[in-house]
Amino acid sequence: MSRFGFLALVLVLSTAAPVFAVNPATKLTRGIVNASTGWLEVPNQMAQRKDDGTVVMWTVHGFVHGLAIGLARTCYGLYDIVTCPIGPYDAPMMDPDTLIAPKHGPQPKKPEGPTSSYDL
Question: Is residue 31 part of a domain?
Answer without folding.
Answer: yes
